[in-house]
Amino acid sequence: MIYTVTLNPSLDRVIWVDEIKPDDSIRIKAEKHYAGGKGIDASRVVRTLGGDTTATGFLGSFTGLHLEGLLINEGVTCDFVKIANETRSNVIIFTQKSKEHIAFNSKGPEITPYDLATLFNKITNLASRPSFVLIAGSIPNSININIYAQLIHTLKSNGVKVALDADNEPLSLGVKAKPNLIKPNIYEFARLIGKKVETDQEILEAGKVFIEDGIEIIIVSMGAAGLIVFDKEKAYKIIPPKIEVNSTIGSGDSAMAAFLLGLEQGKPIDECGIMAAAAGAGTALTPGVDLVRKEDFNRLLKEVSCQPISL
Ligand SMILES: Nc1ncnc2c1ncn2[C@@H]1O[C@H](COP(=O)(O)OP(=O)(O)OP(=O)(O)O)[C@@H](O)[C@H]1O
Ligand SMILES: [Mg+2]
Questions:
Q1: Is the same domain home to 162 and 79?
Q2: How far away, in angstroms, is 90 Cα from ligand 2 center?
Q3: What is the pTM of this model?
Q4: Which of 10, 148, 154, 235 has the highest CB neighbour number within 10 Å of its CB?
Q5: Are residues 168 and 196 in the same domain?
Q6: What pLDDT digit, counting tens, does each position of 35-75 carry?
Q7: Whether the CB of 30 sits within 6 Å of ligand 1
Q8: Which helix (H) or strand (E) covers residue 92, if one does?
């Protein structure tokens, strides 16, 4: 089972219109609600690919329950802390004429010390033993920025493996607690090490420091260019096939989910990397905020290429 932590989930309201004309009334062509947030996306993909997953984080009030219902319908086990304040709702508008989107991201509810302590108690005493806990996404303003490091310490001292997908300070502070796995994209990786990286060798060189420090697996994802995955013994460059891209929203979360599922199934990191690239590309194929479909994943698996690179 893969357990995901999303501290600031969102009930995403996706709206499709022909075009946006200011000062005019705009007719909505279609609208749909989605359970959103990075860990939640990963849980949804784990389910699509046939794995077991439980999602935690904070959910509150009407939008929180709506989000939970959506996840239950998809077969994700929910283990959220219920809070008094209302879960945020982000609005994403897709314009069909110009094929653009505008996203309005809300800050999210205040998390009280009581809420935070409840989550910590839950995570310290997990009922079932996950193969991995994935901590992903942004941290609500009312929580200390060091929270990911604290969660990683707690989980690791209980013998639970942890993957971290974050950016900026949540990533750099989280890395100090030595999660078992990190998956920055190339820009997040550059911010983590404080300089731009261009070649595969530069990525491996910079990543080695973290591996020597105790992080076991590093995946650096690079959009259409694929990903590099390495541990202390091996490194691979994984390249997805050229596809007709619809929307890459959620590609990284899908790649993360598939990689962890591969590890849970006992696969080596090159095969996990191939699964990650197929899931990420599958999500890029689907429109809007939709995530990978199982049939696309199965087909793309055979089209991903993998080559070893020397460490
Ligand atoms: N345009 C694309 N064509 C093919 N594969 C893609 C494309 N975009 C992403 N992928 C696949 O998905 C993986 C993850 O994508 P990406 O590097 O964009 O993650 P990310 O920046 O973390 O995304 P997110 O916004 O979901 O956090 C890539 O390594 C690649 O294998
Ligand atoms: Mg990402």
A1: yes
A2: 18
A3: 0.97
A4: 148
A5: no
A6: 999 999 999 999 999 999 999 999 999 999 999 999 999 99
A7: no
A8: strand 91-95
